[in-house]
Specification:
By secondary structure, the protein is mainly β. The protein has one domain. The chain is built from one helix and seven strands; from the N terminus they run βββββββα. Strands 1, 2, 3, 4, 5, 6 and 7 form a seven-stranded mixed sheet that branches. The longest helix is centred in the last third of the chain and has 8 residues. It starts with a strand and ends in a 5-residue tail after the last helix.
Length: about 100
Amino acid sequence: MEALTASVTGLLVEGRAFDISGIILRVDDRAVKFEPVFLYGQVVKGCVEATFHDGGHVTSLGRLFMQSGSVSEWTFTPTGALSRPGKIIDESTFFGLILELLP
């Protein structure tokens, strides 16, 4: 596991940027990165992009949203999904995201 720092914009705070920590889970040359994208957007308190890295290829897995709309839990919306709020994140969802790390 590695830490990363992302500078993200607070969408409701004009011109304000915040440094927020994300994580990279790595096995050999494969990695799953959870990188903060923004804070305080319309009806969303925060967003984290999940991506899979395999050598030189990067694949978006989807986005994790903090308190989206009327949902107070974190939710996950896979890439290409047409609607939100997505699935509430539980153990199964998390391990499904990092399953790509296994050979």
